[in-house]
Specification:
alpha/beta, two-stranded parallel sheet, 38% helix, seven-stranded parallel β-sheet
Amino acid sequence: MSAMSAVPAAPPVIAVTGAGGRVGGRVARRLAAAGAAVRLLGRDPARLPELPGAVAAPPAAYGDGDGEAMRRALDGATTLFLVSARESRDRVAEHRTAVDAAVAAGVERIVYVSFTGAAPDATFTFARDHFHTEQYIRSTGLRRTFLRDNLYLAAIPAMTGADGVLRGPAGRGRVAAVAHDDIADAATAVLLDEHGAHERAVYDLTGPTAFSLTEAAAELSRVTGRTIRYLPESREEAYASRAGYGAQEWEVTGWVTSYEAIAAGEMALVSDTIPRLTGHPAQSLHAYLTTHPRSLAHLLP
């Protein structure tokens, strides 16, 4: 080899936000296993996983509004995997801080974890935040892909009370809930693609079927061995039954409207995106419940 031979280019760096969380952590592990250069971002360095080939960035949380810290954390990254921030009154502004930091750092592509039915008039109020974030990312001109997740399968047992009642104003609507692992598999496939196959794509990530909450209660009953029932509520009843949680009004509104969005059919879409991107079928509610017994601990007799 001559002295003039070109030095191999460094692999593109993929920055993963929320790398200590349930989506970001799963994606970071998959990317590291694939040999990608990964930058781990999170508000708490102690929660970041130790992975081969992965580098933990200095603490940076876009929820803190510190755009300069985010820019430094993203410096040198080619792609940003932007996991949506935890629900808050200022969520869209927090997302804009992260996007602005990505632009300032020279990031070329953003893959954003959005929500199904994102629209300015979505019934589910938090889905409106995702719409405005998507629009802001579009305005930057960066390469982009939006992953619109449905409700998490993990939310089904979590929404069920220890009294064995799944309650909310979902009527007879259906939800195509999706597993965290399937989301991570799909996101990894998108992030590792270097040929632009997913540029400007908007993917709905769903489970294999859409089910009603009555059907969800029946499945919970089969798996736990106790009677779980769905109790349809009116809007007024839903607010009243959650009044004792000590949550702020905007948060309770988000909870209640998530059920109302199910009733309105806004979470019923079933897509084939998971099998197309991952090569395996999406996980069903039954498969999730039987492989995640810890999610059922509060429901077991």
